[in-house]
Design goal:
Helix content: over 70%
Distance between the termini: 94 Å
Shape: rod-shaped
Number of helices: 3
Radius of gyration: 49 Å
Strand content: under 5%
Number of strands: 0
Largest sheet: none
Length: 141
Amino acid sequence: MDLPPTQDPEEGLAGSEDIALAGWLAEVESRLAGIDARLAVLETSLRPAVAEEVQGATAELRRAMTELGRRLVQDLPHELARHRDAIVAELRPPAPSAPPAVASDDDQATEAGEPATASVAGPGADDVDAGRRATRRRRRG
């Protein structure tokens, strides 16, 4: 589409140039009207196809959301339990460490090279003390 040469507005247009310009403008308008008509036909033909695609995409999104919801419901109790256990582990005080072994008089004497002396409480007293300590440890844990 060739544009006609423009002139200075002060000079004005000659009669033949007015007619040529008017013809050119009419031609442009008719071409635009033709393009508009073709676009209307194209829009009419595309509308059902676009609507069908949109409905298909909507259905696919609906299925995907349903599947994600189903998986969330299946995994949620496990994940909540895992988070609860992690929180409880953070809040629980650390387990007390075993108290350092206290060396008895017998152990100290043996280390020094002296003979071990008999316990004042008599035979079997160590078994009773060991049982008491084990019971206390079980109660603390």
